[in-house]
Design goal:
With 154 residues, the chain is an alpha/beta fold. Helix content is 42%, strand content 22%. The chain is built from six helices and five strands; from the N terminus they run H-E-H-E-H-H-H-E-E-E-H. Strands 2-1-3-4-5 form a five-stranded mixed β-sheet. A hairpin with a 4-residue loop joins strand 4 (110-117) and strand 5 (122-129). The protein starts with a helix and ends with a helix.
Length: 154
């Protein structure tokens, strides 16, 4: 994430994240870089539907599309950007190595990522399937994909 932080600093842009299945891994990777405090506004780990909703994700979106959907990831990225006034918002939701008895819809091991660009009012979205044996390895793979995508779009 060193290049991401350096690029954000150079562009004088800020970023915030609303993470679910990555459990704060993206913001952790960013804060491991010196100078990250210049670009990171805020991060929220919203494992539960309740706190996704409290952070601005529409209950109707979750009920209609599932908490594990691109629509939910988009709501997460846009709302965290708006809540913090950040140039970029990153929203991540999905399942890593487990099924969710509380949210039966959605495929196991499918992760949805949305990056919101507030200046352009636009989204860059992708989904991925994880296949490693451990949650930690799957998180690392997702974080690496997010890093590459952020560098592409900035």
């Amino acid at each position: 994430m060193k290049k991401v932080v350096e690029k954000l600093i150079g562009l004088q842009k800020t970023i915030s994240t609303m993470e679910s299945c990555t459990g704060g891994g993206v913001v952790n990777a960013l804060t491991n870089v010196e100078g990250a405090s210049e670009v990171i506004r805020f991060s929220a780990v919203t494992y539960s539907n309740e706190f996704k909703i409290k952070m601005g994700v529409s209950r109707e979106i979750i009920d209609t599309y599932s908490v594990y959907s691109m629509e939910t990831a988009c709501e997460m990225s846009k709302n965290i950007s708006k809540f913090t006034g950040s140039d970029y918002g990153v929203g991540i939701t999905g399942k890593l190595n487990r099924s969710d008895k509380s949210n039966l819809r959605g495929l196991d091991n499918e992760v949805f990522v949305s990056i919101y660009d507030a200046r352009k009012d636009s989204f860059t979205n992708f989904k991925t399937f994880v296949d490693k044996d451990s949650r930690a390895e799957n998180k690392e793979d997702v974080i690496s994909l997010i890093e590459k995508k952020l560098l592409e779009i900035m």
